[in-house]
Amino acid sequence: MIFYLARRIFNYALLLFIATSLAYMLASFALDPANNWNREDPTLNWAAINANLVAYNISADLPVWSRYTTWLHSVLTGWDWGVTPKGESVNGLISTKIGVSLRLVFLGAFIGMTGGVALGAWTATRQYRLSDRVTSFLAMLVISTPAMVMAILLQVLAVQVNRSTGYQIFEFTGEGEGLAGRLQHLILPTLSMSLGGIASYSRYQRNLMLDTLGADYVRTARAKGLVKRKAVVRHALRTALIPMATYFAFALAGLFTGAAITERVYGWHGMGEYSVNSIAQYDINGVTAVVAFSGLCTLTGALLSDVFVAVVDPRVRVS
């Protein structure tokens, strides 16, 4: 088990290094930080501007490979991800935004995963009944709704609930202050993030459960006298969770796309908003840091899924 996890960690670390390096190269070729000043005033002193960009190691006049090696040395030796075209520290900007996104993404992912698995398993045991058809229709409706539309619809519903009750139950702008305020502001963004996960995971889990419910080992367990609920949980659900764990790990990356939109709609200042601003400001170091962060979260999810599969599936532990 230990050697299995060590091998997976090494592979994921190598993948993250390659992905981050490619992101830096692509951003260097596609983004020119000098465009920030070109949009403001073309008559500015370009010699002084370029001197600053050279000092920041982001000037287009420097060879890409030279910029990359300098940047990589700073990251590996001092965990310094560089500066923006305006001279701001990328480390400082990200440190104020990572917690915001992690709070939103991982809470939404957890609710979406657990809710989707439970709903999918429940509907699979009621195949073709009214409850199965209704939940299937609602799930497909949610899946086909864009993230921005879903976030705005929840805001509209929240306004109506607040007006009808006469209380400010839901807050949907900003992050709030204090524990109670943060929790109140967290409800709608988390719900917006988790609804899509519940819908998509429930459909996938339902299909997996339908395959396992008719398996020989489930029918054998029932024939030996095991009640239906225990047979479903111990045998059908446990087997269906193995591919589900892998699916969840690599679906985690898609949550960051939804997070960027959700943060915009609800006025949260997290990594999603920062990624959009970094591209708009031709920030090479910022874009690379965002890719590294999203890649780290995705591979962390993949590692957790590997651990889960190893716990659930004895064949992995033996191998």
Automatic annotation (TrEMBL):
Gene Ontology CC entries for this record: plasma membrane
Transmembrane domains' residue ranges: 12-31, 104-125, 137-159, 179-201, 239-261, 287-312
Signal peptide segment: none
GO biological process: transmembrane transport
Domain named ABC transmembrane type-1: residues: 98-309
Cell compartments where the protein resides: Cell membrane
InterPro entries (alphabetical): MetI-like, MetI-like_sf
Keyword annotations of the record: Cell membrane, Membrane, Transmembrane, Transmembrane helix, Transport
Membrane topology annotation: Multi-pass membrane protein
Coiled coil: none
PROSITE patterns: ABC_TM1
Family: Belongs to the binding-protein-dependent transport system permease family.
PANTHER family reported in the protein's UniProt record: INNER MEMBRANE ABC TRANSPORTER, OLIGOPEPTIDE TRANSPORT SYSTEM PERMEASE PROTEIN APPB
Protein name (Swiss-Prot/TrEMBL): ABC transporter permease
Protein source organism: Actinomyces weissii
